[in-house]
């Protein structure tokens, strides 16, 4: 049961992220919601690679008695998560830059009022 | 070289269509040449007929909102509903995505 | 280094290098930079032609990044493919041809469209990065690589939509596009994680081979279809499309059409190749056909109440994406023989035709906006006297988009009508009536912009400069040629794509070596 806690955390983070995107009116809060959603998905990717009682997949200075490679966690999800974190940083930077320009033009950050393109 | 495109239960040959089109254009030209040639150019005889009224040039322009007025008027209920649905609000766009995912869950899980 | 062997890597590397060199070369002057970008695109197109020739003569090309020999998919000590592998079959080459063609004409059009704006160095960088993203999406055989390239394409596209920063509407459209793309891509990543956790594989061929019908696979399929359909603008998730297409500069819209269709290519790849063997896709095909009809109807009717020119054409683009999805949904429903193969041919051919037709309409609308500085249709009128060539090109695009013979739109639409009739006659009748409705829509736009008496405010506008006219002329020439010789196009380009999609075993066998 204790090994399922990260998956419950993933579900909780995704729900909190979706709540922030769907029910908050401030544009910055929606951007933060997207970031929380991305953290949840990254946590999911990392948790997939865990093996019970395993060590980090590095070959130098291994502790005694670890079998290679069954005693190591999977290294591929770690690479996927790093890539995803970098992509998330780029998207966050671009979203905040566009939000600053929107504030200069619309004088408000309320999503219900930034609605000139409707219909 | 075969120019026909076989569709499921028939075929479509654009070269045959073009030949038919050119033949019909020729027929139109022959019919037009039966007309009278003794009309005076650039006078009242070639202007379009607007029910006898004389319209000023700046009143002849039709805005694009007024075109297809009858169609839009007859479907007014549908358009009111669609305008209300297309709010332009970012949160509604994500809400439609979640609704389609739930619909797909129901379809794939139940059926 | 043999160019033919390494062409899948070069086709990504050359535009990527060119994208980051463009601001440096831009210091030398405007003409040098324009010539440099055009040379990069011509080089990429030449490599694309080499790839296409190799693919049509030898079969599926595979390229492993980081191996001793590029066609060695598994390393010598392990028996499963572990590296990033590009797998190029007939469908990938078809989509790559569309992307290259559209990017080339977008750049040619932009050389005079954004001549007077500042920041044009970064515009060309972003346009080349968008091309890299699209080509990577279409050529890859690895699911996580697909996610990375779809994010590259969406980030570049949303920065390009916000190009004219002085208008608030462009920024609003850009943030909506970026938020929607990013949420869709995160759900896509969640589904890729689910598939990786089940099968310990990221390669598409390996997942297709080891797929079994468990409950988690169904959840992954739903998330994949949902997020890829949202990125392709299928109703009711289409609402970002009129905003993004209507507010971007027109050459950018031309390139984003290809990016949207690359997402639809992702949907086709998921439904046919990865899940094609192990799943019974009838229920999903029914939902896709229903969503396609919703797109066609909503797109065709909402155009009539718009007053902005590009926004009206964008709703028509939503309807055209509905037609493509109708062809694909019918092919999923009926299987890939008989009428299903005709439906798949129609849908895939319509991808190319829709890109060309809608692209031509957006380019013509861009010329009007460039010449008159006016985006609202209520203030335009009687432009056919001054801008003769733009009128003719808009007319050709209009006839092609609504499916009039002898243009290419009719050739693909008749394939879709006939196969939908085999599914259910009522659906074919609704599709044909919606096509007539689309003709009515475009006639309204054409009349209110071009015909009618002359507007006194627009007395002294001139025809647009030559590069814009040349790109519009080339696209309309391709449209007319595709319309007069559709059987040539279908036999040489579309049939290999349909074969590649229906032959899943060849796709799997070429990576796993006959397992």
Structure write-up:
The complex is a heterotrimer of chains A (119), B (111) and C (515). Chain A has a single domain (2-54, 67-106), classed as Helix Hairpins. Chain A is 61% helix and 0% strand. Chain A contains 3 helices and no strands. The longest helix of chain A has 31 residues, at 76-106. Chain B is flat and about 75 Å long. Chain B starts with a strand and ends with a helix. Chain B has 4 helices and 2 strands; from the N terminus they run ββαααα. Chain C is built from 19 helices and 2 strands. Chain C has a two-stranded antiparallel ribbon with strand order 1-2. Chains B and C meet through strand 1, helix 1, helix 3 and helix 4 of B and helix 6, helix 8, helix 11, helix 15 and helix 16 of C.
Helices and strands in order, then pairings?
The complex is a heterotrimer of chains A (about 120), B (about 110) and C (about 525).
Chain A: H1 5-23, H2 27-48, H3 76-106
Helix pairs in contact in A: 1-2, 2-3
Chain B: E1 5-6, E2 11-12, H1 14-32, H2 69-74, H3 76-85, H4 90-110
Antiparallel strand pairs in B: 1-2
Chain C: H1 7-26, H2 30-58, E1 61-64, E2 85-88, H3 90-113, H4 120-139, H5 143-161, H6 168-199, H7 204-210, H8 215-232, H9 240-247, H10 250-274, H11 282-302, H12 309-334, H13 339-372, H14 388-401, H15 408-423, H16 425-449, H17 466-484, H18 486-502, H19 504-512
Antiparallel strand pairs in C: 1-2
Helix pairs in contact in C: 1-2, 1-4, 2-3, 3-4, 3-10, 3-13, 3-17, 3-18, 4-5, 4-10, 5-6, 5-10, 6-8, 6-9, 7-19, 8-10, 9-12, 10-12, 10-13, 11-12, 11-16, 12-13, 12-15, 12-16, 13-14, 13-15, 13-17, 13-18, 14-16, 14-17, 15-16, 15-17
